[in-house]
Amino acid sequence: VQLQASGGGLVQPGGSLRLSCAASGGYFSNSPVTWYRQAPGKQRESVAGLTRGGSTGYADSVKGRFTISRDNAKNTVYLQMNNLKFEDTAVYYCHAFGDFWGQGTLVTVSS
Fold first, then answer.
1. pLDDT > 90 in the chain, percent
2. Which of 8, 27, 17 is closest to 71 using CA atoms?
3. 43 with 54: CB under 8 angstroms?
4. Residue of 86, 102, 103, 100 lying closest to 40 (CA atoms)
5. 69 CB neighbour count, 10 Å cutoff
6. Distances from the Cα of 64 to the Cαs of 47, 57, 83, in angstroms?
7. What does the mean pLDDT of the chain come to?
8. N or C: the chain end with fewer CB closer than 10 Å?
9. pLDDT on residue 13
10. Pairing between strand 56-58 and 45-50?
11. How far is CA 100 from CA 41, 71, 104, in A?
């Protein structure tokens, strides 16, 4: 299984980004998926999760601003991030299929 994360970039506070995680060698419909992030000098933390059945969960820090979703036809999971804040700056990783990680995509929120 390989996971390919993309969509990061530089955005101003209050802006939006959509991250993508594409899978090869496995189907997201068969696996829970979690987006994590790691800010400089901090531990990796989970921010959003999606079960096989479609239930979602979010860290309190992103609840109401981030949305995780899945497109089975494209075998891709998304993280829609709205109203971004300085503290959302981090490398974002997708995780699925037990112990497979995407390579990370950098999100920088800066004015």
1. 98
2. 27
3. no
4. 86
5. 14
6. 12, 11, 9
7. 96
8. C
9. 98
10. antiparallel
11. 23, 19, 12
Whether residue 83 contacts residue 107, with contact meaning beta carbons closer than 8 Å, is answered with no
The tally of CA atoms less than 13 A away on the side-chain side of residue 35 is: 35
CA–CA separation, 17 and 10 (whole Å): 9
The reported pLDDT for the residue numbered 9 is 98
Q: Which two tokens stand for residue 92?
A: 């974002």
Residue 96 DSSP label: E
Residue with tokens 């970039």, as numbered in its chain: 9
Instruction: Check if the beta carbon of residue 7 is closer than 8 Å to that of residue 18.
Output: yes
**Both structure tokens of 17:** 């980004």
**Would you state the structure tokens that stand for residue 13, as one six-digit string?**
């506070």
Structure tokens at 111: 């004015």
Q: What is the spatial distance between Cα 38 and Cα 36, in angstroms, rounded to a whole number?
A: 7
